[in-house]
Amino acid sequence: MVVRPFVFYRQNVIERLKDYLQDQISGWCLNWFSQEVLPKIELFQGDGLAEHVDTFRSYIDKKLSFTCASGAILVWESPQLVLKELAREEAFPPDEKSELCSYLLERLAQDFFSGITEDGRCVERLIEPNLIHSQGSGWLTGYFTIAEVECYFCIPPADVDSLAEKLHLSLLQKVSARLEPVANGCQKLATELSVELLPLELTLEELLQIQVGDIIRLDHPLEEPAVILNDGDPVLTGALGVSGDRKAIKLVSKQG
Predict the structure, then answer these.
(1) Is 234 helix (H, G, I), strand (E, B) or coil?
(2) How far is CA 44 from the centre of its chain?
């Protein structure tokens, strides 16, 4: 069973990331839309701003989004309004179904991603808003407007880590105060460990001849580390041995 950890970033980390993203998005808007008044962004984690989460999900449902190779997402209120803002006095009509407009929208998204992710290539990928906006998912969501067109972007934890490294930020992640009792309680739950040795091969004839009291020689050498399992999943390895009058195992490494 895979358990996804809770990830909450301190507010000062979010503010530093917000300042950096503000500069990146302002440059993007200036290059593409020649806006004199550059947008101000909001940045939050999980479902921190419920009204924006609902709007984001409605835009995703309408398939008004781009996803890049790293998993980051850009979604906007209306491609037609974005194209209209792009076109201004240009000669092409803002028809989102035309090849030119589709190409422009993809280039627009790729240029946006290039400022905030390691790999800005646009790809088609299933998006799960419930995961993105679940408590402690590690995703960050941003909101801004271009000439009154609502735009949202979501950054996955891996890209947040990359941005933090670029900005020399320490991502000391913590469980929020209201989740601490849950985390503390989980630490006291009992779990069961078992030790797995190398399998022993017997013929069917040998198996049928086994009697109570027989001694079976195992094929597991004493110097060979054994695998320690938790709920059937390998978590540790250990060396076989004796402690007092009991058989024992000495932990030597962690798995994965």
Answers:
(1) strand
(2) 15
Q: Are strands 233-243 and 226-230 parallel, antiparallel or unpaired?
A: antiparallel
**How many Å separate Cα 62 from the centre of its chain?**
23
Whether 2 maps to a domain, the answer reads no
- 87 phi/psi in degrees, rounded to 5: -70, -45
Cα separation values, 124 from 63, 70, 114, 164, Å: 11, 11, 17, 26
Q: Mind listing the pLDDT tens digit for each residue in 168-213?
A: 887 755 445 455 555 555 556 677 888 888 888 888 888 888 888 8
- Asked if residue 46 lies in contact with residue 157, where contact means CB atoms within 8 angstroms, the answer is no
CB–CB of 120/69 below 8 Å?
yes
Query: What pLDDT score does 17 carry?
Result: 93
Query: 89 lies in which domain range?
Result: 11-181
User: Domain ends where: 156, 181, 206?
Assistant: 181
Shared domain check, 15 and 95: yes
